[in-house]
């Protein structure tokens, strides 16, 4: 390396090469401040405008200048073409398709912002829009002061018709519009009847009624309702299955359809256990045409429809997957079971419930799962000009103890309930009107006042409470479908939600059990006769004193041969049941448990392998007339050991459990069958010993 290259390398290393700006310093940099410190200090000076001696801005601060730099728009043809265009034919077809989808309650519109919903809705209300526009223009162009009064400038009345025929046609249109308003009023009030008769015989709104009938209509309750609706994504309208139309609030449905169409509304028919299956299924079928409808029975331990409701709420949650959570509000009339449904879904008591209206005072927010929350709401009573005090009382809106003269509502109650239901409920007959019915029931229940007069008020309140709480059976029949005569749903004659195939299987299983019992009875009689013959041979040999006192081993008992339907009343009065009966099992609790086990295992799949084998204790302490070894103890034998070998083989062939047979013989034939078992069992035990 030469001397020149070494010198060049040294100059580059010392920064003395380049464009000659290597030794340039930043302004303000000196021995005390380096370049970094100077930049930091200059940062505090920025953001302020520089002014001259006169105070005028010489240099504007950052983002303070009003001078706009020159800009250019990208030269593209898209700025001069249409963006979102639809033809009238396409819009009409889309509107018709949208109407068909909107009528289906099981179709959900998720993203309405991407659709021209304003064009679709404006197409329906064109006439109303024109009328509103004309009315607005008339008010603006012709104020009231210029038409009426001393400063009126109008010379003649402006009519929209030119002759009498046009006036008659306009009058007919106005009448049709009036009928439509009456029909809408009838639907919103929940009343029934023809639209022509509504409003003619109704009582005026200024009629003096008791203040108790205004319950559920206060401003506080309506504020709670609208808070629940505003906070909910899904609204559950709880209806009473006995009267769905009476507990339905159409004004809320109209509000949701017009003001909040993005919220989902579903119906839940609660208390479906109080109505026949066909009626509940008919109401579900009828209401499902408008909104999704579910049948429900609110109970923490034994509910119905819980899984279907939770699955439906999960579907709504999956539809709104973009949201972190959804809220479900429960609305409806008083005492329809809104709080009970929440307790049923959570399997515990989280909301206060009571069989009286108005128990829930304020709304309550409850967490069902991670993404679903429930909101409880007080019961609401929409104001209506067609609802009478009788309708409100029988609908369960008011508390019975606060109603004056409750006996006046008993006759309308009797008109809604069938007479034989009242007779079976209260075990009364021979009454023709409500007064006689109250007097008979008061004397039977001991509700008497001074002088032996019946307490009609107290008995009437008791009947009204029974009517509301489901003790008295009643319901509103469901509307019939097209082509249906009896108003019943095919395949729904059993319990609600039960499949017809399952009922057929149970019926066939019952027939098999009946035939098996008949065959078993025949073999049992043959075995008893054989045992009786052997017993008579033993008595001839001098051992008859051992079984003295067993009525079932006598000739009279063998000649009777009672069937499975026999009862203890058919026995002779001279015999004592305590002398002839051996306690199999030892207590009534064991029999109850055995009955429950039989009910659970009833069906074609029931066999001896499914039912648990229980050992039965044969108590021999009550046996008289026999010096038994070890009296006072209990011998534990297997149920099959209590029967003859032939009977055991028959049980194995027909798949009928011995414990089932014993329990049925105990329940159905009572003591006579057991007395025959007593003699036969004791004979077997005696022969073994």
From TrEMBL:
Renumbered to this chain, region (Disordered) spans: 1-24, 474-615
Localization of this protein: Nucleus, Nucleolus
Question: Which Pfam family, just one, is annotated for this protein?
Answer: NGP1NT
Q: Name one GO molecular function term.
A: GTP binding
Question: What name does UniProt use for this protein?
Answer: Nucleolar GTP-binding protein 2
Q: Which SUPFAM superfamilies match?
A: P-loop containing nucleoside triphosphate hydrolases (SSF52540)
Q: Spell out the Acidic residues composition-biased ranges.
A: 568-578, 587-600
Question: Transmembrane region positions?
Answer: none
**UniProt keyword annotation of Nucleus present:** yes
- Low complexity bias: start-end ranges: 516-525, 541-552
Q: Which family does it belong to?
A: Belongs to the TRAFAC class YlqF/YawG GTPase family. NOG2 subfamily.
Domain of life of the source: Eukaryota
- Keywords annotated in UniProt: GTP-binding, Nucleotide-binding, Nucleus
Role this protein plays: GTPase that associates with pre-60S ribosomal subunits in the nucleolus and is required for their nuclear export and maturation.
Q: Which Gene3D superfamilies match?
A: 1.10.1580.10, P-loop containing nucleotide triphosphate hydrolases (3.40.50.300)
Residues forming the CP-type G domain are 222-383
State the GO CC annotations: nucleolus
